[in-house]
Structures are given as structure tokens and as C-alpha cells.
């Protein structure tokens, strides 16, 4: 497993978690996944700013500053000799006898951070992936990167059972996002994606894509669109820290086709940003 950061200390290989940890019993906590390319952190500041925000939205305060978290990540990368992979970061409300309401007095948040090797998903990025569409059965605060992922887990499993990579979620006929990604359609040279409101997670990759679109002068519209619109798109793609920018070539039985010109341009621009990491 390698070196793990747990509550202020680095541990070799293993840590013991308390069965009364509220993350374990209630999913009462928040998390992030930061990508590492060639030993360097990608968009770590944005991830930790989002972590601090997510914590605040569930009335927890992150025990460390964004700069501290970045420094811990750098140490974890060094200590684990991580080249290409991810860092998982989790904050829970802490350890207390099981009771739904917040513990009184407040508990110290429990922090866990570890790294793992992961190659880039190049095959899907080049060829596109199959997806399914399914009902979005999540709560109404999808903007919080919460540990409560049961609805996402069930939808992702539905996709896997159908031989697909992602489940595109639909709420009241509107495409929200994937079980673990943001969703985009391209029509007549413009990109459309759900607004960053309470119904989706404002992906860090989504923000990079927005920036790339602006640099490439590709119109980027944060507007809702329907399930029907999705199926008549010129291109469809999904994005996340681990999937990067992945074209969608099939939704249920509907074939969308080969990766198109817009997604390829975005992938190139994204690649340039990876190469620019300091
Ligand atoms: N939406 C959901 C529900 C996710 O779980 C994720 C990532 O895990 C994303 C979107 C993409 O976010 P990011 O680009 O920050 O990884």
C-alpha cells in the first residue's frame, strides 16, 4: 500500500480505522482525488479549494490549509516514488458513538490520504467508450463532493453490467452528469454542459475544459439540455480527473460514432496543460 498520511502522521503500509468513524457509519465526510503526472500534481490547488468548500457545506472545517494539503501531497508522492497515479484524500467528521446528530463537543476531523499508481486511460480517450443513460436518483446537493456515493455506485454498476464505462444520469428529462464524470454535447461547433449548480459536481477537469474552449475560441455554453438532445449530438464526451477527456461513442443502443474534431482539439489543449505543470 505504501506510505499513508493519517491524522497528521505518515505511516508505512497500514493504519487502523475506528469503527465509530462517522465516515464509515454515515458517509459523513468529503473527499478529493488529485492526479499525478510524471511525479507532479495536476490542478491540486483547485482540488483542495473544492475540498475546503465541500467541508464547509457540510458544516465541517478542514483542519489544514490548501498550501498544507499540497505540501503533504508532495511528500506522499516523494515517499511513494509515485510517477503516474492518483492521491485519494478523505476528511470525515470524526469518531464518536453512533448518533445521527453532530457529536457534542465537536470531534476532530479524521484525515486520510494515500497514493496509488494509475496509467492514463489512453484507449478510451482514443476510441471512445460506451455509456448507458439512467435516472439520476441522487440528492439535491451534488455540488458537494461527499462520501455518500451510493446512488453513484448503483448507477455505475448498472453501466458495468451493461458492458459500459459510464452511466449518464438524467433528472426530469435533463442530462445532469455521469456517475463519476461531467457530460458534454457538441452541436454545430459549440459545447454544451449542465450549469455548475446544486445538481452536478463542478468538476476540476470541467473547469480546465472551459479554459481550453476559451483559448480555442470554441463556444462553451453552461446550459441544460435534454436526453433527446444528447442523442442528436455531433459529439458527446465525459470528463473527470481519472478519465480526463473521454469521447462517448455509444449511449444505450444509439451509436454516436468515432471521436470528433472538437473532442480531439480539447484533448490536445489538455495535453499541453499537463506538460506545463511546474
Ligand atoms: N461528477 C461526479 C459525480 C464525479 O464523481 C466526478 C469525479 O469524480 C466528476 C463529476 C468530475 O470531477 P473532476 O473533474 O473534478 O474529477
From TrEMBL:
Q: Name one GO cellular component term.
A: cytosol
Annotated EC: 2.6.1.21
Pfam families in UniProt: Aminotran_4
The cofactors required by this protein are: pyridoxal 5'-phosphate
One MF term from GO for this chain? D-alanine-2-oxoglutarate aminotransferase activity
Reaction(s) catalyzed by this protein? D-alanine + 2-oxoglutarate = D-glutamate + pyruvate
Q: Which InterPro entries match?
A: Aminotrans_IV, Aminotrans_IV_CS, Aminotransferase-like, BCAT-like_C, BCAT-like_N, Class-IV_PLP-Dep_Aminotrnsfr, D_amino_transT
> Cross-referenced SUPFAM superfamilies, in alphabetical order?
D-aminoacid aminotransferase-like PLP-dependent enzymes
Task: Establish whether keyword Transferase is in the entry.
Answer: yes
Gene3D superfamilies (UniProt xref):
3.30.470.10, D-amino Acid Aminotransferase, subunit A, domain 2
Tell me the domain of life.
Answer: Bacteria
PANTHER family named among the record's database cross-references: AMINO-ACID AMINOTRANSFERASE, D-ALANINE AMINOTRANSFERASE
Q: What does this protein do?
A: Acts on the D-isomers of alanine, leucine, aspartate, glutamate, aminobutyrate, norvaline and asparagine. The enzyme transfers an amino group from a substrate D-amino acid to the pyridoxal phosphate cofactor to form pyridoxamine and an alpha-keto acid in the first half-reaction. The second half-reaction is the reverse of the first, transferring the amino group from the pyridoxamine to a second alpha-keto acid to form the product D-amino acid via a ping-pong mechanism. This is an important process in the formation of D-alanine and D-glutamate, which are essential bacterial cell wall components.
The record's similarity note reads: Belongs to the class-IV pyridoxal-phosphate-dependent aminotransferase family.
- Put simply, this protein is called D-alanine aminotransferase
User: From what organism does this protein derive?
Assistant: Macrococcus lamae
Q: What is the lineage of its organism?
A: Bacteria, Bacillati, Bacillota, Bacilli, Bacillales
Amino acid at each position: 500500500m505504501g506510505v499513508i498520511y493519517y491524522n497528521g502522521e505518515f505511516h508505512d503500509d497500514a493504519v487502523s480505522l475506528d469503527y465509530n468513524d462517522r465516515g464509515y457509519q454515515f458517509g459523513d465526510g468529503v473527499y478529493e482525488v488529485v492526479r499525478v503526472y510524471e511525479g507532479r500534481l495536476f490542478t491540486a490547488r483547485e482540488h483542495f479549494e473544492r475540498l475546503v468548500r465541500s467541508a464547509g457545506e457540510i458544516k465541517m472545517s478542514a483542519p489544514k490549509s490548501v498550501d498544507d494539503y499540497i505540501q503533504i501531497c508532495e511528500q506522499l508522492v516523494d515517499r511513494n516514488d509515485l510517477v503516474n497515479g492518483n492521491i485519494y484524500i478523505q476528511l470525515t467528521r470524526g469518531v464518536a458513538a453512533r448518533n445521527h446528530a453532530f457529536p457534542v463537543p465537536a470531534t476532530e476531523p479524521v484525515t486520510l490520504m494515500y497514493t496509488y499508481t494509475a496509467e492514463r486511460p489512453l484507449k478510451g480517450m482514443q476510441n471512445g467508450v460506451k455509456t448507458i443513460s439512467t435516472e439520476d436518483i441522487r440528492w439535491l446537493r451534488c455540488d458537494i463532493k461527499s462520501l455518500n456515493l451510493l446512488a453513484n455506485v448503483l448507477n455505475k454498476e448498472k453501466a458495468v453490467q451493461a458492458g459500459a464505462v459510464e452511466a449518464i444520469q438524467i433528472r426530469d428529462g435533463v442530462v445532469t452528469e455521469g456517475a463519476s464524470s461531467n457530460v458534454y454535447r457538441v452541436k454545430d461547433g459549440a459545447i454544451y454542459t449542465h450549469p455548475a449548480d446544486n445538481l452536478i459536481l463542478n468538476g476540476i477537469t470541467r473547469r480546465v475544459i472551459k479554459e481550453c474552449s476559451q483559448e480555442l475560441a470554441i463556444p462553451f455554453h453552461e446550459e441544460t439540455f435534454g436526453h433527446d438532445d444528447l442523442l442528436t449530438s455531433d459529439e458527446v464526451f465525459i470528463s473527470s480527473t481519472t478519465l480526463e477527456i473521454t469521447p462517448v461513442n455509444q449511449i444505450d443502443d444509439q451509436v454516436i460514432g468515432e471521436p470528433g474534431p472538437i473532442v480531439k482539439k480539447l484533448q490536445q489543449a489538455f495535453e499541453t496543460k499537463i506538460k506545463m505543470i511546474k
